[in-house]
Every structure is written in structure tokens, then in C-alpha cells.
Amino acid sequence: MPLDTSTYALAHLRLDGRRWNELRRLHASLSVQSSSDGSAYLEQGNTKILATVSGPQEPVRRTGRDGSSEAKIEVEVNVTPFSGTDRKRRAKGEKRVQELQLTVARAFQGVVLGHLYPHSVVEVRLHVLSQDGSLLAACLNAATLALIDAGIPMTDYIAACTVASSPSSDQSIDDSDPLLDLNGLEEQELPFLSIATSGEEGKVCVLMMETKVQMARLEAMVSVGLDGCGQIRGILDEVVRQHGKRVLEAKVG
Amino acid sequence: MTSLKRSHASTAPTTTLSSKTYLRTLKSGKVQKIVRELYLRQDIPCSSQLCTACLDLAPPSFHRKTEPFVLSATPAATKQYPQGHYLVPDTNAFLSAMDLFETEGAAFQDVIVLQTVLEEVKNRSLPLYNRLIALTKNEGKRFYVFFNDFRLETYVQRDAGETINDRNDRAVRKACAWYAEHLRQAVTARQSARYPAVIMISNDKDSLRKANAEDIEASNLESYVKGLPDADRLLDMVASSREQRLARETKAETLYPEYLSMSAMLTGVKNGTLHQGIFNVSPYNYLEGTVHVPAFDRALIVQGRENSNRAVSGDIVVIEVLPKDQWKAPSSKVIEEEDLGKNENAEVDEDSSEAIVTERERRALQEEVRRAHGQVAEGKKQPTAKVVGIIKRNWRQYVGHVDKDSVRTRTKDSRAQQTVFLVPMDKRIPKIRVRTRQAAGLLGQRVLVTIDTWDRESRYPVGHFIRSLGELETKGAETEALLLEWDVQYRPFPRTVLDCLPPEGHEWEVPKSVDDPGWTGRRDLTDLLICSIDPPGCVDIDDALHARLLPNGNFEVGVHIADVSHFVKPNNAMDKEASLRGTTVYLVDKRIDMLPMLLGTDLCSLKPYIERYAFSVIWELDKNADIVSSTFTKSVIRSREAFSYEAAQLRIDDKSQQDDLTKGMRHLMMLSKRLRAKRMAAGALNLASPEVRVQTESETSDPVDVQTKQLLDTNQLVEEFMLLANISVASKIYEAFPQTALLRRHAAPPKTNFEELGNQLKVKKGMELHTDSSKAVADSLDKCVDQSEPFFNTLVRILATRCMMSAEYFCSGTQAPSEFRHYGLASEIYTHFTSPIRRYADLEAHRQLAAAIDYEPLDASLQSKSKIEAVCKNINVRHRNAQMAGRASVEYYVGQALKGRVLEEDGFIMRIFSNGFVVFVPRFGIEGLIRLRDLPEEVGREQDSVFDSEDYSLTLRGGKVERKVELFQKVTVKISDEAEESTGKRKIKLQLTK
């Protein structure tokens, strides 16, 4: 029985040795798969995601009299059977996966300049290679990078992270710290929310919470989350700029 | 195609990344591979007040706070380490000697608990882990948890082929080495030369040797303790190590059968061949236990040491039913351990093997069997079982005394270690074998011990001393002993709890201005003529009453309860403490409060003549005491008078008093009689329990006399209205919170409970006991009257009470509404609302009622079914323990009151065995066992007596004439006192005179 989150209060150290406001190591690269229009590989701790984008393209199946003047974002999440600790095959239409797809699609519908490509679709495929918490956030981050790699015009990055509320050490004083960027174990034990923002001003475009948390703690959690999204945006931006630089150098050189 | 090379570049300069991979086997047999990240860092402080470098680097929490440093700058010095020292114990040190680390006083302070060790302790034993965590929170002990596996310098990677244990030992050594070096640097920075030693405590020889090689200060636990003052006392608190036990194992032969494996037990229980239940030992016969299992109505019997196979009363065991030819009748004989095991030598099974069942025990059992066989015709044999495994030990700390016969050397200054027997106060617990160096000093003392193990080779469990409570029979020691025995939390309230009290202290008063937030939602009831009626000398006044005649001829009656929930807010330290204590415990000379004195006896207490916050239940009752309407409100009241029961009775009876207050009380009296009559008609039981009051001398609180409690009409007056309030509140909170209301139920007793009593009454008195409903029981109890003996009815009621189930608190969502019934009170629904000062359940009910009337929102903890259930579970246990402790206290004081006196009193025989009988003496509310061998004329002729279990009689042939003793018979007994050998208690000794 390894230690659990209840020991956080002893030294303000989390299960993996991080402090409350530390992100996990975030590593990402662009254009990792040349057969697609855009792709990205992202590691947020041990959560690993490969994202590919194809489009904008004509819809494969015309659904009725499709008069839409905007490009449609279609998201498919593929949780690989080997991604978790238990090897298990997931049914295609599983509710959780569907919800994940829908959340990601809705979020990008808001930032992609779809009116430039009427009557077309942009397909985003997210392959979850390894899971260790903050799945939705990692999916959003990976999708952002892949869309940028595909050259889809967007108003800004979507950067996402998770925040939990740590158990407080003393019931009389609520001294619980919000914890940023959860790993799988923390996610199982603590109440948490996923938050995503777009733009430098930090406009919230996704906020999802499925667990119960004390009302009074929510504000601190959201503010730490916003800060975390800002940090992630910085890292993603750096990844994109580095990649751009390399591409340019290759062209010029 | 780009290659995806993983970069290990760190994200921040102070952290580096590592990962931890391990395999885990699940219950299903599946193996999982788990990979975890590990962020190694350098900002984990050493937490020594000597170090300034760490102070700067400890990062703040979200609330901008940093933890204060724990380890003292001037830690305690010993002979070996004159410069002071910090301790770094390894896992085994904690596992074997947690009691030692918990000792109060100067020893074992400034301890560094390594993360590696904490994790290992958690793996090995969850209770010990919890105790260790509690220690780290205890400010006085200065325990610091150092997360060595997260600190870059102390992190240790497991080498290929290295076992986990070796890796952990290495981690401990590395942390010690780092600490020593770190402190040296810290001290040099301060330009001082003295820095504390960092001592690794380990019993692992290999690790100690390596530590020496690496120049790390290390010591094994024993030699470290030897260097401390008071070493003898401390050494006894170390559980004997495994090596010592193993060494013995090779020599001794096994005495008990081996337990089945956990999986075998679980499969057995699942498919019905084995049964699981709690092992209960009979208080009259230590060799006989019963286990109640869900599969059968009646409990199964477990007889003899071999069959009970190392189970201790209270353990959760798995049993197997024996073949029918081994079934036995429940013992009709009193067997006490002291009679049979007197001459055993505690040291004995170290050198020679012994049988589990001694010759004398075997003889006693044979006799049992013979008797059982002699009565085969009656088919009294019952299903008998044997213990095949233990699911969960329920060992706690036991209070007892050292068996003086087991002590070898009596000289005080002998420091030789010897093994002695400790005889627990609880007769159902076997003797505990304890190794000690202070045996002579502990003779005649009340001591606290704990059981460590019970190996197959050992006839008795092995334990170790924790501490001595003081001399036997001194008030302090005995009171503490019974508090410990019943697990009553009696330490003074910690500072965090006292901090929750209102800052004004005794100066607090109801705010004058009605605009004050304290007044919002409160009704001003200060005009009402309210009074309280309580036992004389009561200081925590929970309840007050009023009644007045309404113009329409009905009555307005109010019950006003102290508004404790105003002062005790959910989830603060005070609330936590109160919920742990669960109830106030009343001993004869002492009260152990649930809430701090300031609240209990002053701010909450509805004292007369001053304004107090209250929670009021106000009814309109018609002339027949039927409820027309009821309202609940928070209020402010001013009690006009605090009466004792006697004073109230006098005032009501005094015709000359015609003021409104007295009139109100007369209305109350009239209505309460109607209520009572209605309740009785509905089938409420009027039960009896032997209650006595010990009169004590006011200054020394030495007992002077014993009296049975007197009941006046005013007692019943208060009781009736409290019941009415409880019932009204119960329906209200159930209506508001159908899933989470905290209620109280009393289940109908199963018919089998009454079988024995019914049969006894039929055989001896020709009376019938109907048990179909509570009404039937009440009616037939009323008919059990012996014209010549007025007390007989009470005796039957006492016996009937013992057949009942005990009432319990529960969460409404966990039971079907039909199960809510309170059998004894014949009410469909019931809760406790009227004593929030002394019962936690009432406090919770107050909060729920306050939310139900929209006074304040309900706290989250009261909305969760699981949390309420946990609270109920705890308060049920606490309630029971408090009763037991109270009874034990009365028993002790009755003993003291009778000390040195010899009296003759009437008594009644309430239980009969083949070799003795139990006599109840109503005058003192005591019951005592008279054994045949204690009767002078019977000595040596016990075998001649004839026990007729059908007729519940025993014919004694020892005297010149035959003498028959039978159940319910009135006898005269001589009462004297004696210090009981087996439990060390002063007890009443009864002798038959007539």
C-alpha cells in the first residue's frame, strides 16, 4: 500500500514529489506523422497522446441538405487498449469517449475560423497511447498543436489543465491547497475539475467537473487552473515557435 | 518521418525526473505493472531549527504559509550523545515499539520519520501507521516526516537484484548520512561547533554493520534505550522481537492447530461450510465462548481452549461446526481461570513443552461432558463449533495486574528479566505473558498492557507493558483503569478545542440588542414562566419546561433545550472531539464531559434567572394531552427556577402555592400523567434495572452509604415531555431528510431471548410470559406478582430487561421505515434531542432540526448517509461503554462503601449453576456468585449436591439436613468484602446464612 493523498498535508508534497502549483513535465513535438495534414505528439507526465488532423475537406457523407456555412470539427478519440494499467478493449461508442469527443469538438468549434471553409469538415483524431490523469486536458492541448500544424486558422491556442482540491489537514481551518495538473492516482482520490482557456487573456472555453467539491474551495481551484492554463499556453507556444524556426531554417538553409 | 526521442530535460532547474516502476498483484490474481513519475527536488527542508538555509528555501503553500520547523535546536542529550541527538528509526523499530515512541515525557522526541519508513509501516500495519501519523501531528513530540525519496540527494534507485528491503535500508542510511552532513554544514554556517548526532535506530544486524562501515551513527533499539534514564520502564514497552520468538519456536512444539489461509476461510464462508462471527466469551466460564452467526438463530458454542484456538473475546473469527457426536451442552458450571490455572509457571513454555489443556482443566471439562451425557434425554446438547481462523483481531490495551505467584524474584532491585503473567480485569481475556525487568516493582499495581502475538507454540498470548496506573485499589488508579477499559477519552481538552470556545468566556451573555445576528430567527420567549427540573446538584441543565392554559381551554406546553449547536459548529475541532467522545460519562465521583466545562455547565446550561439561547418545541395540547399543533423554533428564554425533583414535587403538592409558575407545573403534572397512561396503553414497557446511588462525603468523596434511587412523580413528568419532544422532533427531521435523519430504534427482541425466562417463570411460579408484542410483555409482566414478596415483580423486570435488545442510533436511509420502531417506548419513530450537552446524537438532531425549519443550512457532513452511519456506529459504541464504565464505577464504590463492614441482607437467587448460584441483593443493587465450595458445610462434599436443571434447583447435602436452593428463592446473605484475587478488584463477597 503506497502512500495516498492524505499525506499531502504532512509536507505539502504530492504523491510524485511535486508542489501544489507545479505542472508535470510537458513535452510535445509537431509534424510527427507525415501522411496527415497536421499532427502532434504530446506527453503530459505519463499521459501520451498522438493527434492527427485531416482537412479541411469535403464531408465523406453529405448529411441531407447541408447548408452550413461553417467548417465542422469532427473529433474521434481512440483510447488504445494498452493505455491504462489494465489491458482492456473499449467499445467504440462508449459514453465517456463520446463525451470526450463532444467536449473537444465544441471547444474548437469556438476558436477555429470555420466560416473560411464552408461545407467542409476538419477531422481531428486523438490516439491515447498512455493514460495517467488529465486526459481531457491533454487531448485539448494535443489537438491545439495538431490543428496549428495543419494550418487551420484559429483565433488562439486552447490550453488546458486540471486542478484538484487537496484534503485539508485540520478540519477547523480550511487550509487545503488546490493542486495543479493531476496524475492518475490523484484523479482517483480527489475532487477535481478540468479547465481550458483560449487566448492570452484566459477566456474559459471548457470547464468540466464531475466530482463534488465544497463550494468555498472552487474559487481558488479555478484561479489556480487559469494560471496553469497560462503556463501551458506558454509551453505550447514555445513548442510551435521552435518547430517553425526549424522548418524555416530547413527551407532557407 | 521524425523520430520521437524522449527528452529527459527537466522543466525546472530544481527538479529532476525519475520514475518508479513496480508490479502489483491484484486479488483476482492479475498482475499489473505500474509506472509512476517521481519529481526529485532540493527544496524539501530538513526542518531543524538549527538550519537557516532550509528556512529560506521552503516554498509557501497556496495560502502563503510555510510549515514551522519541527526539530528542536537543542535536542535532548544522553550519556552517549552529550551534544544532543535526532533519531531516525527504521521500519522495524516502529513496528515493534510504537508504544515506546508514544511515551510522554522527554524520551523519544525529535524523531525524523522517513518517507521510506512511513510507507513500509503503512504496508505492514494500518493501525500502527495511523498511530504514527497521529504522533507526527502531536506538537510536543516533535516528529518530522522527511520525504527522502523526493529529495534529490537522498533518493536511492533500486539496483538490479537488490531486494526491496535492502534498498529501503540503504535509503534510510543515505538519509541519515545526508542529515548528519547537512546539520554539520548548517551549524558551521552559524559558527558553532556543536551539532546534534543523527542516530539510526535499527534492529537489523546487517544494516547496523553497513552503517558502521559508512560511518553513520547507528544503534539498535535496546542499547539505545539502555542509555536513557528510566530504561527499565521503557524496555518493557518493546515487543519481543521476532528473532526471540523464532529462537523459541525451534524448541517448543506447537500447541494449537494452524489457522486456515485467508482465501480458504473466505471460500468456506462463501459456500456456507464455515461461518463468520464475533467470538464472545462467557463471563461465568472462561473456557466457553459463543459465536453468533447469521446462518443460525442461536449462537454456536465453542468449548475449551483447543477449540477456541487462540481467539480472544471480541475477535472476528471463522468457525467450523463440529460433528454431532462432539456437540456439548452449554456449561452449567462456573469456571474461572484462577481456580484452574493457579500454579502455572509463566516461564514454563520456554524450556519445556506443555499441553494446551492442563490436567485440571481436562477434568473440569470431562465432568461437563459427563453431566451433559447424563441428561441426553432432554436433548440439551447444542451445536458446537471450533475456531479455524481469525479474520480480524480486536485486541486493544488491557488493564490488569501482575499475578504474584508468577513472579520469581521479589527483591525490588533485581533487574533480571523474567516472564510474568498479567491477569486482565476483564475475566473473559486470558492471562497475558509479559517479559519484564521490573516485575517486583509492578506487584500490586494496576498496569496497562497490550497483546502482541499469540503463537501456536504458546499457551497464552504474549504482550508487553505500556505503563503502570498506580497502586491497586487507589481511587486514581481504579478510575483510570475503568476509563481505559471502556475506552473513555478522559484527557483534558486540547488547545485546538478550547480555541473554538467563545472568546468572552464566562462573560458571554445573550446580546442585549435584538438586532444582533445572534437574534436572527430566534423567538423571544423570555416572558414565559419556564423552569427546569433535574437531579439535585445538576449543573449541566439541558432542558426546561413551561405550560400555560390557553383561552380555548387547551394547553400550551413548551420544552426548551439548550442550544448547543449555536456554540458547536459542524466540523471544527470541538465538534470533532465531541463526536469522538460521543457522550458525557458519569462516574460516581467524576464526570468526563463531552464538551468543555465552559459550555456544558455555563453558556449552554439553562441556568435560572439569566437569559440563554434555547431550541424550543412548543405544542398545543388538548385536555387529553393529544397534540393539536406543534412548532419548533430557536429561542431566547429565561428560566425562573431550577428545581430538584424533590423540590418540584414539594412545590406542586403544596396547596398554599398558587402563583402562575406552580400552576404551570401542575398543568404539566396532569398532562404528563395522561401522556404516560396513553403510552402504557400502547404497550410501552416499564422495565427496571438495579440502580443505586452512592452517597459520598462531599470533601474526600469517600463513599459513605449506598441507596437505591427513588423515583418521584416529577421524574416521570420530565421524562414524559422529553419523550414527547424526542418523538415530535424525530418525525420532523425524518420528514425533512428521509435519507439522512439521525434516529434511534429499539428492535423487538427475538422470541428465543425470552424462552429461558418464560420457562423459569412457568416452572417456578406457574406464571406465563407472553412475548408476542411489547404490549403483551408489558401486560404479563404486570401479572408477575408474588403477593408475599413485593420485590419479586421488580426482579422479574430486571431479568426481562436483560432479554431485550439494546437500542441503537441509526441513519434513516439504512433501514426500512417499518424497522424504525422503538420497542420499549412503543413509538413508531424516535430520536434523541433533549440532552445535547451530554450526547452527540442530540447535537446532530439539533442541526438537522435547525435545517428542517430553515434556520440555517445543513452542513455537508449531515447530508451524507455514510458519514451519518459512521457517527451512529461510533456513538452506539460510546454510549454502551459509558454505561459500562458508569456501572463499573458504582460497583467499585459500593465495594469501597462496604469495606470492612459485615451486613446481613435479603437477597434473591437469580441464576443457578451446578456448582453455585447468583444472588441479587436489592438493597445495594449488587449481584454476587456463591460457589458451593465457599459454603463451609459443603467443602469437600460438592460432588454430592444434585443439580436439577429442569427444576432450576440445587439440593445441597453437605449439612446435617438436606437443603434445597432454587431459582427466585429469597435468601439471607452475609455481605462482606474481599479483594478478588483474579481481577484485583475489591468485590462484595456473599455468604449464605439462611
From TrEMBL, chain A:
Family: Belongs to the RNase PH family.
InterPro entries from the UniProt entry: ExoRNase_PH_dom1, ExoRNase_PH_dom2_sf, PNPase/RNase_PH_dom_sf, Ribosomal_Su5_D2-typ_SF, RNase_PH
A molecular function GO annotation: RNA binding
Organism, scientific name: Baudoinia panamericana (strain UAMH 10762) (Angels' share fungus)
Localization (cell): Cytoplasm; Nucleus, Nucleolus
UniProtKB keywords: Cytoplasm, Exosome
Name listed for the protein in its UniProt record: Ribosomal RNA-processing protein 41
Signal sequence region: none
A GO biological-process term: TRAMP-dependent tRNA surveillance pathway
Subunit field text: Component of the RNA exosome complex. Specifically part of the catalytically inactive RNA exosome core complex (Exo-9) which may associate with the catalytic subunits RRP6 and DIS3 in cytoplasmic- and nuclear-specific RNA exosome complex forms. Exo-9 is formed by a hexameric base ring of RNase PH domain-containing subunits and a cap ring consisting of CSL4, RRP4 and RRP40.
Cited PANTHER family: EXOSOME COMPLEX COMPONENT, EXOSOME COMPLEX COMPONENT RRP41
Automatic annotation (TrEMBL), chain B:
UniProt-listed GO biological process terms: exonucleolytic trimming to generate mature 3'-end of 5.8S rRNA from tricistronic rRNA transcript (SSU-rRNA, 5.8S rRNA, LSU-rRNA); mRNA processing; nonfunctional rRNA decay; nuclear mRNA surveillance of mRNA 3'-end processing; nuclear polyadenylation-dependent CUT catabolic process; nuclear polyadenylation-dependent rRNA catabolic process; regulatory ncRNA 3'-end processing; TRAMP-dependent tRNA surveillance pathway
Top-level taxonomic group: Eukaryota
Pfam families membership: OB_Dis3, PIN_4, RNB, Rrp44_CSD1, Rrp44_S1
Database matches in CDD domains: PIN_Rrp44-like
GO annotations of cellular component type: cytoplasmic exosome (RNase complex); nuclear exosome (RNase complex); nucleolus
Cofactor(s) it depends on: Mg(2+)
SMART domains: PINc, RNB
InterPro entries per UniProt: Dis3_CSD2, NA-bd_OB-fold, PIN-like_dom_sf, PIN_dom, RNase_II/R, RNase_II/R_CS, RNR_Ribonuclease, Rrp44_CSD1
Keywords: Cytoplasm, Endonuclease, Exonuclease, Exosome, Hydrolase, Nuclease, Nucleus, RNA-binding, rRNA processing
Start and end residues of each S1 motif domain: 895-993
GO MF entries: 3'-5'-RNA exonuclease activity; RNA endonuclease activity; tRNA binding
Protein's cellular compartments: Cytoplasm; Nucleus, Nucleolus
Family per record: Belongs to the RNR ribonuclease family.
Stored PANTHER family: EXOSOME COMPLEX EXONUCLEASE RRP44, RIBONUCLEASE
Protein name per UniProt: Chromosome disjunction protein 3
Organism: Baudoinia panamericana (strain UAMH 10762) (Angels' share fungus)
